[in-house]
Structures are given as C-alpha cells and as structure tokens.
Fold this protein.
Amino acid sequence: MMHNPFHGVIPATITPFTSAGGIDFDAATALTRTMLAAGCTGVVAPGSLGEGSTLSFEERIELLQAIRAGSKYGNGAQGNVILTVSALSTRDAVRQAEAAAQLGLDGLMVLPPYAHKGSWQEHRAHVAAVLRATNLPCMLYNNPAAYGVDYLIEHIAQLADAHANLCAVKDSTGDARRLTAIRARFGTRISALVGLDDCAVEGARMGASGWIAGLANALPVESVQLWNLAQHGPRESCDALYAWFLPLLRLDTVPNFVQLIKLVMQENHTGTETVRLPRLPLEGTERACAISLIRHALAHRPA
C-alpha cells in the first residue's frame, strides 16, 4: 500500500525573506525543525502562504532543499516534506512534480492551474497530467473561493478511479459537509484534510485525517495541541483552547493572510513580517488593529 503522508498537523509554510528580498534558507531550515519538534507530521511548501507565485523554479528547488534539511531527525527519521504544485501551465506543473521525486520529497499537493478557470475537462486533464508524472502520493487542493474552481465529489471520483496515487483532498470550502461526503464516498481510500484554520476543530470532529495549518508557523505547539484535543478530547479542554486561538486562526482566512501570519510570527519572535513584492507589509489602521489583537492573544496564552 502506498505511504500516505497526509495526516496530522501539516503547516503550509511561509517563505522567510531577507531584507534584500532573497530567501532566507537558514530560517526556512530552522522553522521546519521547530514545527516538526512541536509534533507536526510534515510541511507543505511553497503554497499561497509561502508566496509560491513569486518564486522562480530555481528558488523553489533551493527552498525545498533547505526544508528537507530541516526535516531530518537525529535518529535518521524525517518528517514529511510535500511540494505544492502550482503553475500557470500544465507543462510547468509537470516539471515541478518531476522535480519533487528527484529531491526525495514525500508527496505533492496539486493546485488548479493559476488564472485559468476553464471547464472540468480542462482541469481534469491538468491534474491527470501531474498525477501521471509522479509515483508520489498526491493531495488535490480544493479552494473555490481562491481559484474559482470547485472540485466536486464526482470530479474527485473520476480522478481517484484513474490514478491510484491520488490519496487525499485538502478541502478549503469551509463546508464541513464536504469532509463527511468524502469519507462517505471513499472511506479510507481518500483522506480528507481541513484547509481553513478556523475550521480545524470542526474538521477534526467531522473525521478529517489532518489539518493543513497556517498559524502553525507562528504557534506550532498550540496548533498540535488543538488538533489532538479536537480528535481525542477532552472536549472541554479543546473548547477552551479553541476559544483563545480562534481570533488568531481567523487571520488565515482573509485577503492579507500572508502579511498577518508573518506579523504574528514577528510578534511571537519566531520570524519576521518581510514579504516579497507585490505584497507589502500592513500599514495604518489595519496594522494597528492586527497588532492589538495579536498582542492581546499572546498576553493571554493558556498555560
């Protein structure tokens, strides 16, 4: 049976940048170690939170090498490193998938083609080309709000029937019924993972096998604790931690989520808020309100 790396808390990693605009590879390695040491099962990069659309192919490769270096434990084991396959063209997406195997990565998260909404037939051809290009286990990413494409159960079934290496779906619809529908239709054949931070507890209670997490970059210990409590209880402890965490988790679901999560990291002394153009750091009232929320939450962090 194919190894399935899609379970537990898997941070969608930020990409740390230097003040000069380059990637801080040492910081990427260190962040990976920190998140895995907290109990995350792996990382996925470079997606939307990782500003993947701003990275060249060569930068992607170097970043993943740095992350892989941080994924190795002292006992010879290693955490899972999953490549986000995201491109304007199918040809470039296939190139990324082929590179993942060469780098010794553990799986792929496959996004729709950037900018092209198109028909289901076109999207099926795109995803199928990526799945055929690799023997690695793959997770389909469904985020209709972000990409204008909604992969329905019948679409997932067509892909799963034709490609044994499609193992999971990251669902960012915010509709918990999608998670139960995946479980009902596919059983253990396809894992369902929750893709919005402020749906993590609901996802776990609906039977999701994992959480692709954003705030885990800044607060990995609390993220793993929340997920474990959501899965195994006690419920009262989970609800108390969720009530504290939820204002921060909601930062993952708004347009400036990249800047906001990096700002949480800066306030928590686990990173910087540096982003790459065309993004800019937050300013004015938005920044002041975010800092007030973040500092209040960090000052009242549960013991």
About this structure: The chain has twelve helices and eight strands.
